Amino acid sequence: MQGIQIIGMGKALPARRVENEAFTQMVETSDEWIRSRTGIQSRYFCKEERQMDLCAEAARKALANAGVCPEEIGLCVVATITPDYHTPSSACMVQKLIGLPEDIPAFDINAACSGFVYGLEVVSCMLGSDALKRPYALLIGAEKLSRIMNLQDRSTCVLFGDGAAAAVIRPSDAHRFFCRLGSQGNAEALNAPGAGYPELYIHMDGRKVFQFAVHAMENGIRLLAKETGVSPDEVDQFICHQANERIIRHVQKKLKLPVERFFMNLDQYGNTSGASIPIAMAELMEKGQLKPGTKAFCLGFGGGLTWGAAYLEF
Ligand code: ACO
């Protein structure tokens, strides 16, 4: 079966960095509470930047990193729950902003923090289709969560951040790809109401999502191992959704896997939902830790509730 290869990545962050200390002016919280409960130290919030600007900057960097021109892109997908418009989609705006061809599909995926993993599966299926006339796909994970955050709600406002990262992907027989996705309708655990609702902000029952998250990650690792025949001991990088250090540590310890194979950067960015896995991947690539032959398990979970587990070879 044809696989996929990520041949270039790029990330984009807003200019404004916000330290934990800033929240002590808005709600009853402390740097110590935020660090010890989540591992987060700072995050980035957009000021002037639109979500589509982050998408475009990440996409341009990924194209440069891959050595691919906009004219060679055959598909543009953005994973996001915070597009600037319901329509046009962020993917359509990226098409315009970076000059992608006009005869290619461009659309958004709404699967919250699992969105990039959902996107990998969608891209892998579509790259095999005759309908795509060009050889590469652009997959972006991007969020402007600060737009839907209630700065009076301490249980959510300290957790999230804005950012984006993009991947240029091509079909490849030499790089295996395997993915499993899931969902269960549950607005009580997490929701971000749309237009027409009186409440515009994200609502989350942190404990419920925590329980779902550890279960989804553990199951995802076991499922990938069973279906791919790749044992967790052979996996070089576990690239997890960056929501909470305690969730990642819990799973790593329970499965008795080496701590250094679970990359973490949520201390700097907070939870960037659909952007968190690609930002982590882009940083691993920058650090030279996704070398040819690297085997990775990607694990996403979040609003929906959704989950996604993918096996990638670099
Ligand atoms: N500062 C100080 N105290 C706080 C804060 C804060 N910022 N937030 C909550 N508290 C209080 C609570 O009110 C509670 O007080 P109480 O005991 O008097 O009621 C106490 O701290 C403990 O609250 P818990 O919710 O039990 O804290 P917990 O240890 O579970 O940590 C957290 C909360 C960090 C949200 C955790 O549950 C978590 O990470 N959940 C998963 C979130 C996640 O993964 N989301 C991903 C999806 S996001 C998406 O899809 C967009």
Order of helices and strands: EEHEHEHEHEHEEEEHEHHHEE
Strand content: 15-25%
Gross morphology is globular
Major sheet size, sense and barrel closure: 5 strands, mixed
- Based on CA atoms alone, the radius of gyration comes out at 18 Å
Ligands (ions, cofactors included): acetyl coenzyme *A
Structural class: alpha/beta
**Low-confidence spans: pLDDT under 50, at least 5 residues?**
none
What's the rounded overall pLDDT mean?
A: 95
Taking strands numbered 1, 2, ... along the chain, how are they ordered across the largest sheet? 1-7-6-4-5
Helix content: 25-40%
Describe it:
By secondary structure, the chain is an alpha/beta fold. It has nine helices and 13 strands. The strands form four sheets. Strands 1-7-6-4-5 form a five-stranded mixed beta sheet, sandwiched between helices. A four-stranded mixed beta sheet has the order 8-13-12-11, sandwiched between helices. A two-stranded antiparallel ribbon has the order 2-3. The radius of gyration is 18 Å and the shape is globular. The two termini are 16 Å apart.
